[in-house]
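Let us begin with a simple case.
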Amino acid sequence: MHQVRVASLACYAQVAGQVGLDGPAMLREAGLQLSGLNDPEMRISAGAAVKLLEVSAERSGFDSFGLLMGEARSYSSLGPLSLLLERLENVGQVLGALTRYRRHLNDVLNMAVEEQDGTSIIRVELIPEYARTQVLDYSLGFVAKILHCVSGGRWVPSMIHLERKAPSDLSIARRLFRVPVEFESNFNGISCPADSLAIALPMANAEMAHHAESLLALVPLGPEDAPISERTKRLMIQLLPKGLTTVEQVASTFGISSRALQRNLEQEGQSFALLLNEARRELAKRYLTNSTRSITAVAELTGYASLSSFSRWFAREFGTSPHSWRAAKLRSALEGTRP
């Protein structure tokens, strides 16, 4: 079972109250108790936490609930990890540590950094089954806050990118990020000048960083329940919009040969082609549900060179055309909001 630290919900009752919800009652409904949030290192079901945020947004009618959570959460809620991040040399090292120690945040976050023509792209993704609007907003908002805090405000992104449609109230996003936000983007993440990752941290101290790493090693996490097939699918979802999903490209990211990757997948009863198809399904549903992109654009983002090829694949997988599937989802969403 994938888990998250209780600290991720430490500010929940406060935020719920801001939008007119009874926070303690919502927590109880989710199978959680307010008193149970006192131990920040305790771990709870990721599914329960994700559902809580989505239901909270739905019942309050406030579709920026996740952004409010990201704004309200404090840097110190990172716990022992905060002691390491602030003592590293620069912003780039912080991103590396967030990737390396991601399970000290939760089991569902996945981050990657790449450079394109002098711009660094920081991708923030979640395991597909947990990739919902509010938790993505929350995760991205908190990652941006972490980088801002550890740099003493010196690091400033160029733009925030969110796949979701723009919320009805843009003030929260503007207040939280303070830079342009691209909604209905091709990815969830942050773009910034590549050289900004070299910005020195004001509290950098190599010896203290080493001590913090020793402390983190003492935090019990248990073995990660993430087979190679799951990690491969996560990576495919990140790479598909860029057209980088050959078996060689995926294997090289893991630092193994394509033959070794295929052999490992076979041992888990999986195949590269099957996982690629599942990743395409996840992305297609996400883009058709959470954006107003044209069907042609969705086809390109899922790795198809032509609309006709994508439409044939989609009809085979979902039993209907992309246009009809999107229309049905829209009707269902509208009916769900009627009193």
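The second case is a distinct protein. As before, the sequence precedes its structure tokens.
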Amino acid sequence: MASSLRIEKVDRPVLAQHDSTILDLVFVMDCTGSMGPYIDSAKNNIHAIIKEIVANETSNIRLALIAYRDHPPQDTSFVTRVHDFTTQANEMKSSLDSYQANGGGDTPEAVADALHDVLHLSWRSDATKICVLISDAPPHGLHQENDSFPNGCPAGHDPARLVRDMAEQHITLYVVGVEPPIVLYRDFFMALAYITGGQYVPMINAKLLAKVIIGGVREEISLDRLMQDALPDIDREMQQAKEDGLDDKIKAQRLNEIFSAKNLRSKRMKNSHGALSLAATDGYAKCPDMAEMRIQFRKQLETIPNTFATSTLTILASDINYDLMEDVDVSEDQAARLVQKWQQRNRKTYY
């Protein structure tokens, strides 16, 4: 029941009414005891990150920081601390410098509380909005082993609901997953990012953090521009796909037809080991809340072989690459993420 696309092929179009020179970027950092190298990497590279993004993509950038640890009694220093958006790189550097890796208690951390704080930052309505979560542990309530709050965040925050609220507010989540500790929860975090149209990036070398942030931001800005350029066609095709009862995979193929017909291309950071998994897209991402995600995790845990973490780390260490490719065709994963962006941003009227 496919509908034919009615698109005039043109040369690269003039950008739509969207100011892609405006960027709001927040770092959400686990500041517990195991995260020292990543906190230090962010401190040492924040000026270089800003300089490269400004030089290549945007002249108007603001940065924010949300640091998190855990709830008492697991950690008594703080649950979250929020440093709202600033245009001053030195202020951001000072905020980062105030943190050392310390504490944490049980395995899970206050991920949900940090995501809740993301929603309450002073985002600009016309900005490209990106949240980079850097973590090596799950939120409370997913894997109940060694979890002092097995039923979830004691403040009642639900990550599955929060990321949908983020997506509705046009905030794209990138998860930098510190491996191997986070391998067991990779598909869960991948789903959180996917719901917003973002991506999961596996990380085993803290020295590469700046490269990932720069590459991810530049890719996301290019996708934001692309989406704006083709928005009337995307709106029409997504509505037709709904009427035809098509699944998300076919919707993504339809969007790629639009991009090809309009000669729209993108930037793409190499992230082969963060490629979308079926467990993330067809499992966790379909769960409306953490209670359902916990059930999904239990099912997955029963099927994961004991060698999973070790074999994955070996593969990553041998050929990991985060180079940014410029002026390339939109990939299947990118088109799938754009479907999620559109659906979540329009969820009140689309579903």
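Residues 1-17, 307-311 have pLDDT under 50 and may be disordered. The chain has one domain: 22-222+275-326.
Keep these points in mind for the review questions at the end of the chapter.
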